[in-house]
Each structure stands twice: as structure tokens, then as C-alpha cells.
Amino acid sequence: MALIVKKFGGSSVATTAKIMAVAERVLREKAPDDKIVLVVSAMGDTTDELLDLAGQISPHPNSREMDMLLATGEQVSVALLAMAFQQLGSVSVSLTGPQAGVMTNSVYSKARILDVKPDRIKSELAKGRIVIVAGFQGLSPEGDITTLGRGGSDTTAVAIAGALRADSCEIFTDVDGVYSADPRVVKAARRMKEITHNEMLEMARLGAVVMQPRSVEMGKHYGVPIHVRSTFTQEAGTIIREEYTMQEREFIIRGVTHDTNVAKIAILGVPDRPGIAHKIFSALANAAIDVDMIVQSIRNSDQHINDIVFTIAKADLAKAKGLAEQATKDMGVLRVVVEDNVAKVSVVGAGMYGSPGIAATMFGALAEAGINIEVISTSEISISCLIQADQVKDAVNAIHSRFFQG
Amino acid sequence: MALIVKKFGGSSVATTAKIMAVAERVLREKAPDDKIVLVVSAMGDTTDELLDLAGQISPHPNSREMDMLLATGEQVSVALLAMAFQQLGSVSVSLTGPQAGVMTNSVYSKARILDVKPDRIKSELAKGRIVIVAGFQGLSPEGDITTLGRGGSDTTAVAIAGALRADSCEIFTDVDGVYSADPRVVKAARRMKEITHNEMLEMARLGAVVMQPRSVEMGKHYGVPIHVRSTFTQEAGTIIREEYTMQEREFIIRGVTHDTNVAKIAILGVPDRPGIAHKIFSALANAAIDVDMIVQSIRNSDQHINDIVFTIAKADLAKAKGLAEQATKDMGVLRVVVEDNVAKVSVVGAGMYGSPGIAATMFGALAEAGINIEVISTSEISISCLIQADQVKDAVNAIHSRFFQG
């Protein structure tokens, strides 16, 4: 007997025919004694239709009421999926997020799960029922309905799996696993059998879009293995877990990621005095602008002048430039230069810490492809290079080829 | 300051434009200190669309899951209406039936309200908010979502008004009050300013479709005056209350109703022995068939033979005939005769008990119009006659004219 949580996204339940197909697949893959909890998103375009209705009423709808509105999307799909199981002769029951004990904070539209109280789920499982939980939603301490924001149904599934100490948490999605690079960019990209939570988190942070970081963090927190699989094929997929179970890893580098939603700001000619970086980055932090790579380099040590270069999301560029100029305007800074025609390529691998040649190999691959590196940053499990945006495809292929086909 | 509960049906909130219009009207009619609770149905065709989705999955969907599905309809409309108030600069909050404390039994799809725990509504009102409650739905003792069946939002509104001891409960609907007869049948029908709960209950039982009996019963139970008004006009409407407040009533008869959803069964030649009627009507009761008028007449007192005639809803005719035949098959009953081309016309008025001429006046009106009476039955506040269905319009007009224009 296994206790398995399975999550199906909006495209998997977009029509009543697809909802029937999900029920059929779950029953086909279920061992007789398995206990199954399903977490389901809203049907296909439902959320967009609800957003459109709200937009007809108000350009800036109240976020509490927006959550009240949007939560109906999953409630519809769980009820229909429960009917589908019953039509196939199985016993099932649907639960809203609040009914399933998904407790969140009160930050409407991007609430965080604080706790899952799985009593109701457990009692329904004990009755032999397949339990179908509305993803993406929970209950605030005030008793209001909240939604979790992007990737919320994944997070619901992982949190429930953690609270139930489930044997596995399967995320059914429109890709069939985690690849060594984006398969649309790198033809030879390989599907990974296993990857660690930390590697997946770093890959998500650096541009991989398979899983939202929140759900992977949740998996790490609860020690839940997350099995990423395709709704539309029978492929084995990728298991995201704490540690590798396979004796030997094929590759130290687990993924090459890229991110083109990045812009660069260079503050040139900053006087080399304490507190200046603090002033600049405090101003950005107060405006809730996420700064990614930061490099300070010495322009001229005799004149005590530095350059500070950092990257941010493209959408924040204009605001960040204004703040940087204001923060440095009395410092005799020469210039604030911005560039949004840049991209970041990264390699991720938990084993790279003990492998000193990784950075050299990455830089060599880029050099050989004639690609100039503008900024470099590293973490314990990743190395990132900022390059020109029009070279990103070449860069990812060159790096991937060196690490995975070399 | 007044505490007012107002209920708007599905046609009042069928589009986002109509939802805005409801919010504007409520604000226009609101005195500055008034506390307002709104009870709202699902938008126009939403329920039909959800039923259609369920029908695509299963011909006989599970009723618990059906309630889970249908309850989303009101959740959408309350969230949108709350957004509309906020767009107009008012403070409002939407609540599902369960959040509003509407506690029901577990009879899915036609649950009965057992209690309303209005703590959340009260605390939101105390914060100066307009409270918008999803009608038609509640919470079962097991923590599941239930729906109340036909007219459920009216019942929600009256139950909440009762629990809050509201000053009034206004039901906005597509007619502008309770009429002395169906205005589509009787051109001269008058709108009543006032009518008692008991009269309204009797009129609903006898064919008037303005209000479902459940909500009127609830109003009677809590002593809540129910004010029936039109969504689309500013007419004064009709107040349904315990006792008349006006010094003198204009008319003893308050309404002439008709019902064509009726069929007649005659059991001819029943032996005059104790226990036979019991056997027949027990069989019908066990099959959950509602019997309306019952008349037993003596055919031949020497031979001790009676005829028993009763009426039922048309849909139950075939089943009832079979049961009647079976229950009497060993009794030497001559024949079971059925007829579905019949209709019932009734007069209702709480004051008729002390006015002996009412029945004579009604029968006289029918006789003068050349209409034969097949069965007569009376209650403390009504008299009903079964006639041929094709004469129903003439009958209602003849009776109405005698009592209201005579």
C-alpha cells in the first residue's frame, strides 16, 4: 500500500473529456490498496474568464474579493472530477482548500501555506475514498478564502503530501520532467531521472520554469520527493528529492539554464567610501526591487574610484535607474548606464563545490563560441554569466555540449 | 438606523452591468446609518451552465458533488457584487453561505436551514461594511456545502433576517408584489399592500408562484416581515407579515389562485368498510406522492358503496393510478378512473372563517359562468374547486370579478 498525492494542472482538466481521462488514468495506475489524494487546478481558461468578469466591474478589484472569485475555479473542477470517478464506479469526495485544512496567512492573491491540518483528508481516506482537493487555495486565520498565486496548486500538493507523510507526490504537467536545458533551445537536452531540491530551486531561480520555487521549498521543508511527470505520456519523469539515490551520478552539472528577463545597471565612477553600496541597495530594497548579480570592480585604485554593476528584472529597469541616480547624485558619480539587451546563462549542480574545473570549463565553452562575458556570479551550487541577449542560444548550446556531450 | 436584509435573484445580477446597477440602487436607497445585508443568487444562466457540465460527466451526478459544483455560482456573484460596491467607494465584504453561518441538514440539493449563526455577519456590520451573502447554500453538520433547492435564496434571506432580528427583509424579484390573481390571467388583478404569512403560504400551496412556501414559513417562524419588490421598478410592492397593520382591510378575499398541474383519480364503487381509505392513502404516502384534495361520497347507502376522489400532481398520475389499483384489487372495486384535464381554482383570505357567504359567492360566480364544479375542498382560510382545465381562465376571472370588482 502506498499513499500517493497527484496534482493535475489546468490543461489536464480543461474539458469534461479530459477530466474523465484523468479519472481513468488514476484508476488504471492505482494499486488496489493505494490511498490516493488528487490536487486539481481550475479548468483551462476558467481563471481568465473570472478575471475578465472582475475587470468589467473594476480596474483594480479588491484582492480579498478576487480570491473569493478565483477560488470557485478549482471548486468546479474538483466537483466534476469527483463525479467522473463516481461515474466510473469509484468512491470519491471533493474538498475545497479550506475543507482540506490548507491554512494560509492573509496575504490575498499570494498567500503562503502556514500549515495543513489533514484530519478531514485522513478520515475520507480511511473510508476508502479517493480524495480530490482544490489546489491554489486555502483559509486565512480570519476564516476567509485565500489563493496562493502562481504555481499554487503544486504547492498545495506538496504541502498536503508533507502533512500526510505521503510516499510520493506526483506533479502532472505539460512537460515530462526536468531537462538538462530547455529542450526548445537545446536539441540534445537530457531528461534527468533525479535532481535534488536545492538544485531544482537554484534552476528555478536561474530561469527554469518547470516548477515554481515555493513548491520545491515546501518539498525540501517536508522532505517530500516530488515526481514531475507528463499528463499526456507515460514517461518516467524526474524525481526531485533531498539526496540522490543512484550510486553514481552521470553528470556533476545537472542543468544549464538561461534567463532573458534581465537588465543591467552600471554605476560608473563610484567613490570608494564605506556606505555607498548600502545606500544604493537600500533604496532598491525599499522599492521591493530584487537585485540579482552584483559586482563591484576597482576602476582606479589611485583615485579610489569603483564601478558597481548589478542586474534586475527588465520590468524594474526604469524605476531602478531613477533610484540609483537619486541615491548617488551627491557623490560625484560619473554615470548610470543601463542595458536591457542582456541574458544570463547558468550551470547548476550540487556537486560542483568540490570540482574546481567547472567554472573554467564553462568560461572555455563560451570563449570558444566567441561569446563575451560581462558579469560573473557564483553560488555554492551554480555559476552564472551575463552575456548579450542575442547570443543566449549559442551560449546554452555551447555549455550544454561541453558538460553533457563532451 | 435600520437593519435591512435585501435579496436579489439571478435575473437581477445576470450581467456585470446589472450587478453594478444593484450596487447603485442599494446605495441610493440606503440611509447613512442603515446596516445592510444582501443575499444574492447566481448570475442568470450560471446554474444551467454548471448543470450542463455535470451532465457531460454523468447522467446522474452525485448530489453532494452537485452541491459543491452549484455553490460556486453564488460565490462568483457575491464576489463581483462586493467589487462593485468597492468600485463605487463603499466598504463591503462577501461571504459564502457557510461563512455567513447558514447551518443546514445534510439533504443535498434540497437542504433545510436548521440555524443561522450570525456572528460573522454581525462583526462585519459592526465594522460598517455592507455584507453580501451567497444565497441558496449552507453548511451541513459534516462540514460539507449544501444547497437549498428551489427558492433557496429567498429562504436564506428570511432566515438571516430572522437571526439578525432585522427590521425588514426585502425580496427583489421580477414581479412587483403579490397580486389578487395572476396578472397574466386577470387583467384587473390588484397588487396587495399587505398579506399575512398564512395567506401567502396558502396561496403558494394553491398555485401562486411569487414566493416558495419554505421562505414564507421561515418568515412566519421568525416573525419577519417579507417585503416583495421589483428589481426593475420603484413600486411599493407587498409586505407579507404576521398580522395586518392597516385598520381596515378592503377585501376579505386576498387572492384568487389557480393550478393546472393537477390530475384527478376517482376510485368508484369502494365498499364502505373501515380501513380502506387508510390502505389506499398509506400506499401513496409510502411512495412520497402528495395527495391534495380528497372527497369521499356515498354512491349507494343501501349497498354500502362509496366513491373516493382525490387529486395529485400531474407527474405522479401513472404511479398513483397503479398504486390505487393495487391497493384495491381484492376489494371488488368497480373502477379506477383518471383524468388529467382538470385545474384547481381557489380563493384565499384569513378573514373568511367568520364570513359565511364566501363559498356561496364563489360557487355562484362559477355557475353564472357556466362552469361545472367537480370537487370542492376547504381549509380555514381557503376554498378550492376542481374544474375542467380549459375553463380555468374564465373561472379565475369570474371569481375575481365577483370578489374584487363586485
Automatic annotation (TrEMBL), chains A, B:
<dbReference type="GO" id="GO:0009090">
    <property type="term" value="P:homoserine biosynthetic process"/>
</dbReference>
<dbReference type="InterPro" id="IPR054352">
    <property type="entry name" value="ACT_Aspartokinase"/>
</dbReference>
<dbReference type="InterPro" id="IPR018042">
    <property type="entry name" value="Aspartate_kinase_CS"/>
</dbReference>
<comment type="subunit">
    <text>Tetramer consisting of 2 isoforms Alpha (catalytic and regulation) and of a homodimer of 2 isoforms Beta (regulation).</text>
</comment>
<dbReference type="GO" id="GO:0009089">
    <property type="term" value="P:lysine biosynthetic process via diaminopimelate"/>
</dbReference>
<keyword id="KW-0677">Repeat</keyword>
<keyword id="KW-0220">Diaminopimelate biosynthesis</keyword>
<keyword id="KW-0457">Lysine biosynthesis</keyword>
<feature type="binding site">
    <location>
        <position position="74"/>
    </location>
    <ligand>
        <name>substrate</name>
    </ligand>
</feature>
<dbReference type="Pfam" id="PF22468">
    <property type="entry name" value="ACT_9"/>
</dbReference>
<feature type="domain" description="ACT">
    <location>
        <begin position="265"/>
        <end position="350"/>
    </location>
</feature>
<feature type="binding site">
    <location>
        <position position="184"/>
    </location>
    <ligand>
        <name>ATP</name>
    </ligand>
</feature>
<feature type="binding site">
    <location>
        <position position="47"/>
    </location>
    <ligand>
        <name>substrate</name>
    </ligand>
</feature>
<dbReference type="Pfam" id="PF00696">
    <property type="entry name" value="AA_kinase"/>
</dbReference>
<protein>
    <recommendedName>
        <fullName>Aspartokinase</fullName>
        <ecNumber>2.7.2.4</ecNumber>
    </recommendedName>
</protein>
<dbReference type="InterPro" id="IPR005260">
    <property type="entry name" value="Asp_kin_monofn"/>
</dbReference>
<dbReference type="InterPro" id="IPR045865">
    <property type="entry name" value="ACT-like_dom_sf"/>
</dbReference>
<dbReference type="GO" id="GO:0019877">
    <property type="term" value="P:diaminopimelate biosynthetic process"/>
</dbReference>
<comment type="function">
    <text>Catalyzes the phosphorylation of the beta-carboxyl group of aspartic acid with ATP to yield 4-phospho-L-aspartate, which is involved in the branched biosynthetic pathway leading to the biosynthesis of amino acids threonine, isoleucine and methionine.</text>
</comment>
<dbReference type="GO" id="GO:0005524">
    <property type="term" value="F:ATP binding"/>
</dbReference>
<comment type="pathway">
    <text>Amino-acid biosynthesis; L-methionine biosynthesis via de novo pathway; L-homoserine from L-aspartate: step 1/3.</text>
</comment>
<feature type="binding site">
    <location>
        <begin position="7"/>
        <end position="10"/>
    </location>
    <ligand>
        <name>ATP</name>
    </ligand>
</feature>
<dbReference type="GO" id="GO:0005829">
    <property type="term" value="C:cytosol"/>
</dbReference>
<dbReference type="InterPro" id="IPR002912">
    <property type="entry name" value="ACT_dom"/>
</dbReference>
<dbReference type="InterPro" id="IPR041740">
    <property type="entry name" value="AKii-LysC-BS"/>
</dbReference>
<dbReference type="InterPro" id="IPR001048">
    <property type="entry name" value="Asp/Glu/Uridylate_kinase"/>
</dbReference>
<feature type="binding site">
    <location>
        <begin position="173"/>
        <end position="174"/>
    </location>
    <ligand>
        <name>ATP</name>
    </ligand>
</feature>
<dbReference type="InterPro" id="IPR001341">
    <property type="entry name" value="Asp_kinase"/>
</dbReference>
<keyword id="KW-0547">Nucleotide-binding</keyword>
<dbReference type="GO" id="GO:0009088">
    <property type="term" value="P:threonine biosynthetic process"/>
</dbReference>
<keyword id="KW-0808">Transferase</keyword>
<keyword id="KW-0418">Kinase</keyword>
<comment type="similarity">
    <text>Belongs to the aspartokinase family.</text>
</comment>
<dbReference type="GO" id="GO:0004072">
    <property type="term" value="F:aspartate kinase activity"/>
</dbReference>
<dbReference type="InterPro" id="IPR036393">
    <property type="entry name" value="AceGlu_kinase-like_sf"/>
</dbReference>
<feature type="binding site">
    <location>
        <position position="179"/>
    </location>
    <ligand>
        <name>ATP</name>
    </ligand>
</feature>
<keyword id="KW-0067">ATP-binding</keyword>
<keyword id="KW-0028">Amino-acid biosynthesis</keyword>
<comment type="pathway">
    <text>Amino-acid biosynthesis; L-threonine biosynthesis; L-threonine from L-aspartate: step 1/5.</text>
</comment>
